[in-house]
């Protein structure tokens, strides 16, 4: 399991990789550079668009057109024309920015917030937005991160990074309401859980900030199955493509000797 570096541009904080299976395109962001990327794995083309405030999460609309969260609100970005336009904003406090998010099967946008420019304990929330209306579904979070639905969409897994745990919620697809069930995974070492995704078998793959790896967990019993080591310490998130290959985003750390932080990595499915 040797990850391949496929993109590196001296970014401080790459995040939010999502793969559009219909169009075979990977999207990801450089949060603090306010950049949104579109990567074509077939011809290796990488396009980028810059917004005016930190970006975090990408939602699919149509071919090469996405909705992106930024501190200034949600913007529609068209990578066909390289144009952008404001879409909407949720009523959030000035001292927070958006972080990780996900979309449910009927199109609800779920997204969390965190303190910005400084992390503030319990200042964040997780919101659900649909058809012009929004509501708070998880309150008093600190660093809202990984979100993943079970394959039957009955459960939502969520990471508030400082808790070092993965929470499991019952999810009502009809109403968008959630109810806390239990913490199903706990990190006891020095690393902290960041972004995550779920594989075809229902296992959670969790990026470990400070741990230099992506780890695979069984949410049914809380057991760690294995991990993938990377040549940098701060791993931010991951996602699978159509062929179960894994894309991984990373961030820099304070060491001058670590050169690969902030890169985008790729691991083939036959090596997982």
UniProtKB/TrEMBL annotation:
Transmembrane regions listed in the UniProt entry: none
Entry annotated with the keyword Hydrolase: yes
Gene3D superfamilies: TolB, C-terminal domain
UniProt KW keywords: Hydrolase
PANTHER family associated with the record: REGUCALCIN
Single GO term (MF): hydrolase activity
Protein source organism: Flavivirga amylovorans
Protein name: SMP-30/gluconolactonase/LRE family protein
InterPro entries assigned to the protein according to its UniProt record, in alphabetical order: 6-blade_b-propeller_TolB-like (IPR011042), SGL (IPR013658), SMP-30 (IPR005511)
Enzyme class, first EC level, given as a word: hydrolase
Domain SMP-30/Gluconolactonase/LRE-like region, chain residue ranges per copy: 15-251
E.C. number: 3.1.1.99
Family: Belongs to the SMP-30/CGR1 family.
């Amino acid at each position: 399991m040797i990850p391949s570096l496929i993109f590196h541009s001296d970014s401080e904080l790459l995040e939010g990789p999502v793969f559009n299976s219909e169009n075979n395109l990977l999207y990801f962001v450089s949060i603090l550079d306010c950049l949104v990327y579109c990567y074509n794995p077939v011809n290796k083309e990488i396009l980028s668009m810059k917004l005016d405030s930190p970006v975090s999460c990408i939602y699919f609309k149509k071919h090469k057109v996405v909705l992106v969260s930024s501190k200034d609100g949600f913007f529609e970005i068209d990578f066909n024309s390289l144009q952008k336009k404001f879409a909407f904003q949720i009523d959030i406090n000035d001292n927070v920015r958006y972080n990780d998010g996900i979309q449910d099967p009927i199109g609800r946008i779920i997204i969390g917030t965190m303190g910005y420019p400084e992390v503030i304990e319990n200042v964040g929330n997780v919101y659900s937005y649909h058809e012009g209306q929004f509501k708070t579904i998880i309150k008093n979070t600190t660093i809202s991160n990984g979100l993943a639905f079970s394959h039957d969409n009955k459960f939502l897994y969520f990471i508030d990074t400082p808790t070092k745990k993965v929470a499991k919620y019952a999810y009502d697809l009809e109403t968008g309401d959630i109810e806390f069930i239990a913490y199903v995974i706990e990190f006891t070492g020095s690393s902290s859980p960041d972004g995550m995704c779920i594989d075809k078998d229902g296992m959670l793959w969790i990026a470990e900030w400070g741990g230099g790896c992506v780890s695979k967990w069984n949410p049914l019993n809380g057991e760690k199955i294995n991990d993938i080591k990377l040549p940098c310490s701060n791993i931010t998130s991951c996602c699978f493509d159509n062929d179960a290959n894994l894309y991984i985003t990373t961030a820099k750390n304070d060491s001058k000797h670590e050169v690969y932080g902030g890169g985008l990595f790729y691991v083939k499915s036959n090596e997982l």
